[in-house]
Each structure stands twice: as structure tokens, then as C-alpha cells.
Design a protein that fits this description.
The protein is of the alpha+beta class. The protein is built from 2 helices and 6 strands, in the order E-E-H-E-E-E-E-H.
């Protein structure tokens, strides 16, 4: 497997496992929402948002991005290409983890909230 995650390029399952182990140790209270975009026989594309709290300083972040995956003939992931942007948020801006905030995801308003997003 070959992965690109932000500015990191990883190759081989052991390197990917080490990356994920470190990521999960530093990103606490991780909550993810993926939106299916398209697929073909061996490819899938999604757009996503996830929120996490830094285990280093307690700062909350929302990450926005796109992922493209390709799979081999045995169904194992062959490549993952992820483009991700992190935006610092306050606790009250969290939208994924609370049921009462779920409507913001259903109608898409979370993508328009805040000065960091364009309405284009």
C-alpha cells in the first residue's frame, strides 16, 4: 500500500500501521463523518469532516478533506490519497459528536459556518 496523508507519504503496511498508531495517540475524542462521492470497480472517493481534540494542548480541530482509494483484486487497499485541512474550533463549534447538532450536517450548514469557509 502507498498512502499520502497531508504532507506525509507512506509506503507499506507496517509504515501505515505506525502512522495510524501515532495519529490515534495524538487525536483524542475523534469523531468522523464521511460522505460518499463516487466509485468504480476498484476505486472509491469520499469527502469528509472529522473533529478531534489534540492530546497535546486540548485544542479542538475540525478537519475537512477528500480521500481517494484504490483496491487490488483481493480487495486490499492499494493506494490512499488524502487531502486534509485542519481548522481550530472551540468546544461550542463541535458539530459531529452531539445529537442536537446533527441537523447542521444534514442540511450542510456546517460547511458554511465560520469565516474560514467560502459560500461559493
Amino acid at each position: 500500500s502507498i498512502w499520502r496523508n497531508r504532507d506525509q507519504f507512506l509506503q507499506g503496511r507496517e509504515e501505515i500501521k505506525a502512522f495510524l498508531t501515532k495519529k490515534w495517540a495524538t487525536e483524542g475524542d475523534y469523531a468522523l463523518k464521511k460522505h460518499y462521492f463516487c466509485h468504480s470497480d476498484s476505486k472509491i472517493a469520499v469527502t469528509f469532516q472529522y473533529e478531534y481534540r489534540s492530546n497535546t494542548d486540548g485544542q479542538w480541530y475540525r478537519a475537512y478533506g477528500n480521500e481517494h482509494w484504490t483496491f487490488d483484486s483481493q480487495g486490499k487497499m492499494k493506494t490512499r490519497n488524502a487531502s486534509i485541512n485542519d481548522v481550530p474550533i472551540s468546544d461550542c463549534e463541535r458539530a459531529i459528536t452531539s445529537k442536537d447538532r446533527s441537523e447542521r450536517f444534514e442540511d450542510g450548514t456546517f460547511l458554511r459556518d465560520g469565516a474560514h469557509m467560502s459560500e461559493d
